[in-house]
């Protein structure tokens, strides 16, 4: 935001991108809830195949719900822009890109937690750093305005999905995660 603020039209560009980030956050509500639920659920599953299917299902639900919500927001674009006022109308492309970025980010949380539950911590971290590098690289190449920043954000999520999905698909089974092992051991010690 500081870079946008110092650019031509600074305060307006930074303000518009800030509104876009709030729109992104609102559309990310369901994926955030699903992401919070996935780690404990996946961590207690000893069966690797079931854990992978469940993670892909959570990821798909997050994506489907967010795409539906994003579609509604894009269809209601003019009335929503009217709520913000005429000053925000020129920033409609930035808002649309942030809506698309929310949809692109939706499957990330569940797949990232799948890597964590499968004890592939460093792969998860690598994808996070790759996402950041993609956003910074795209922002460096894009115009210094709200549309350029929104485009960089969208490209970061889209480009980071390929390695995340590839890593999640190729995860090899490990022994049951420590949480699942501890739960199983505790259940076996219960008196009948």
Distance between the termini: 61 Å
Total helical segments: 10
β-strand percent reads under 5%
Output the radius of gyration: 20 Å
Outline: elongated
The topology string of helices and strands comes to HHHHHHHHHH
Average pLDDT reading: 84
Helix content: over 70%
Largest sheet: none
Structural class: mainly alpha
The number of distinct β-strands equals 0
Low-confidence spans? none
Question: Would you give an account of this structure?
Answer:
- The chain is elongated, with a radius of gyration of 20 Å.
- It has ten helices and no strands.
- The chain is mainly α and 192 residues long.
Give a brief rundown of this model.
The protein is an all-alpha fold and 192 residues long. The chain has helices at residues 2-5, 10-27, 29-43, 48-75, 77-84, 92-105, 108-117, 121-141, 146-169, 178-189.
Write the layout of secondary structure elements.
Layout: H1 2-5, H2 10-27, H3 29-43, H4 48-75, H5 77-84, H6 92-105, H7 108-117, H8 121-141, H9 146-169, H10 178-189
Helix pairs in contact: 2-6, 2-9, 3-4, 3-7, 4-6, 4-7, 6-9, 7-8, 7-9, 8-9
Key structural traits:
10 helices, mainly alpha, single chain, 192 residues
């Amino acid at each position: 935001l500081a870079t946008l603020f110092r650019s031509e039209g600074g305060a307006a560009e930074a303000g518009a991108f800030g509104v876009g980030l709030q729109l992104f956050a609102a559309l990310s509500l369901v994926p955030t809830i699903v992401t919070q639920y996935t780690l404990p659920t996946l961590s207690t599953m000893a069966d690797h195949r079931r854990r992978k299917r469940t993670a892909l299902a959570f990821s798909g639900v997050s994506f489907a719900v967010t795409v539906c919500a994003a579609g509604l927001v894009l269809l209601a674009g003019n009335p929503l822009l009217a709520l913000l006022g005429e000053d925000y109308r020129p920033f409609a492309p930035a808002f649309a890109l942030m809506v698309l970025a929310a949809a692109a980010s939706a499957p990330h949380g569940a797949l990232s937690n799948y890597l964590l539950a499968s004890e592939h911590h460093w792969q998860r971290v690598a994808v996070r750093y790759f996402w950041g590098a993609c956003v910074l690289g795209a922002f460096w190449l894009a115009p210094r305005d709200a549309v350029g920043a929104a485009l960089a954000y969208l490209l970061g999520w889209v480009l980071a999905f390929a390695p995340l999905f590839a890593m999640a698909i190729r995860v090899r089974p490990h022994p049951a995660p420590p949480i699942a092992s501890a739960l199983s051991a505790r259940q076996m010690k219960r008196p009948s």
